Batch of 2 targets.
Target 1
Amino acid sequence: MKRYAKLLIQNNSFNFIILILIVLNGIFIGIQTYDWAPAWIHYIQLIILIFFFIEVIIRWVGRNSTAEYFKDAWNYFDVAIVILGI
């Protein structure tokens, strides 16, 4: 499983999909600030949060150790965002 996770986190398509989800989530957050925002946006954001949670787990499993995972400062940010989202 670690080998597959490592291959996935090194895959440019995986990173591009995560980038697209980040941008979409930002757009949805902006839309929610308006009174006319549809209620379904909340559910889309919940699904995106689940993908972010899975991403954190995949990136953690794909590392050799937890210490290696936290050497990348972006991983602190990812974990904080997921925790705040939950």
Note: The two ends are 26 Å apart (CA to CA).
Target 2
Amino acid sequence: MSGTPTVGSVLEALSDAYPLAWAEEWDAVGLRVGDPAWTAGAALVTLDANVAAVARAAEFGCGLLVTHHPPFLSAISALTPD
């Protein structure tokens, strides 16, 4: 990757290293929130996508949060500030 990577280019690199075919049927893999075209810049890698991880990513100016556990496994009907 040259220059500042996009979220999509990071996703591509991760799927090259860890093929999606390895995931179980119930695994929630891939981009859960955001846009592949966004600039990724720095990334925070963490186990859980919780409030503390998001706050830490923001504190360090990370444009991407990469987690082992997704913020939610099943579909949600809304993602709002409430």
Note: Residues 14 and 79 are 25 Å apart (CA to CA).
